Structure formats: C-alpha cells, structure tokens
C-alpha cells in the first residue's frame, strides 16, 4: 500500500501479502460431482468453496461447502446438475473481504 497523493513530503509504504488459495479439481461425470482440492490457504481460518455460474459476476447455484481449519484433508465434493461453459469453482477464506479465487475450467467445452 502506498499513500497517494504524497502529503507534506511524507510517504508511507507497506507490503501486504494475501494468500487466496489454489484450487485443483477432478470431475466425476458418472456421479455428477466435482472434487475440489485446496492448497495455499490461511491456516487459522475456515475456507469456503462453491460452484457458481459466471456471467458478469458469479451467481451461487447452491453447491457450497466449508473446509474447517481443523481438517487435515483440504478437499470437498460438490454436486452439479450439468457441465456448462459458465460453471465455475470459487474459493475464499472465511474472513471479511477475503480475496476470492475463481477457476472456470469448462468454458472451452471440456
């Protein structure tokens, strides 16, 4: 962060690193589920994972799970009804104004 404009010749600078999480997934088309593995998350907080449909923003479609901070396994299984190009996986730490990580793996018809 940096002050702008520069008031009275005083400039404050601070670096702030945010861990947003890394999402990896596996699709089971037979059972219509997506297993999401999460890494690089803040250790002292729960982590939310959901499926959403992306237009301009990501709209919740009901598939949502919370990975508790106590869980050694950092993965969840989310059901889906249909693979669409706009179907995305979104994850974020359970803290106010957390940065969200979004992965939209089906937009190219895969």
From TrEMBL:
Gene Ontology MF terms: interleukin-17 receptor activity
InterPro entries in the record: IL-17_rcpt-like, IL-17_rcpt_C/E_N
Superkingdom classification of source: Eukaryota
Interleukin-17 receptor C/E N-terminal domain segment(s): 69-108
UniProt-listed PANTHER family: INTERLEUKIN-17 RECEPTOR (PTHR15583), INTERLEUKIN-17 RECEPTOR E-LIKE-RELATED (PTHR15583:SF10)
A Pfam family of this chain: IL17_R_N
Protein's name in the database: Interleukin-17 receptor C/E N-terminal domain-containing protein
UniProt keyword terms in alphabetical order: Signal
């Amino acid at each position: 962060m940096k002050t702008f404009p520069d008031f009275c010749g005083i400039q404050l600078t601070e670096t702030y690193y945010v861990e947003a999480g890394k999402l990896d997934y596996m699709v089971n088309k037979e059972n219509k589920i997506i297993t999401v593995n999460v890494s690089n998350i803040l250790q002292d907080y729960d982590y939310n994972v959901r499926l959403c449909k992306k237009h301009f923003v990501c709209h919740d479609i009901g598939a949502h799970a919370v990975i508790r901070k106590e869980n050694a396994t950092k993965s969840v299984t989310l059901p889906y009804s249909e693979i669409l190009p706009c179907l995305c996986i979104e994850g974020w730490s359970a803290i106010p104004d957390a940065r969200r990580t979004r992965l939209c793996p089906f937009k190219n018809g895969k």
